[in-house]
Amino acid sequence: MVILFAPYLSKPVDLERCLKIAILHDLAEAKVGDIPVFETQDFKAKQRKQKLEHSAMVELCTSLQDKMGDELFSLWEEYEAKDSFEAQFVNALDKLEVFLQHVEAPLSSWTDIEKDMLFQEKWLRAHCRFDMTLFALAEEVLNQGVQKLEDAGEDVSQIAKRAAS
Predict the structure, then answer these.
(1) Which label site among 27, 84, 100, 104 has the fewest CB atoms less than 10 Å from its CB?
(2) Contact, 124 vs 99, CB < 8 A?
(3) Cα 31 to chain center, whole Å?
């Protein structure tokens, strides 16, 4: 996705840096497991996840014992803090990819919170607002999700109301 969307961004990105960040950002999760974002919404759970991932990255990067480990750890920290346009871009793609998979999954597998997420800013739109192309893509993916709900006869206005409360 990095290669596919980079040419359409509002400003140029360092493609090599983006690719490195994209590969690295899930490395900690590969070691400690992937915790769904909606399970880390309270402060303690989020802190626990961050601590576990930080420890995993420290362990992985120090095992390299050279500049490569330092560079990889620095790129991972950049992603976590969203300190650069490249990090924001990769983060937005990570969120978009999750929503794309979700929209493609059978509706029978969706929980109420997953339906609600289509109508809540913080899950996707907030991560894509910094770039018009990514925001437009986010809107398209969300619209497809809403359409899927409507096609299945779900009460979309009720879901949106619930999501807003």
Answers:
(1) 104
(2) yes
(3) 18
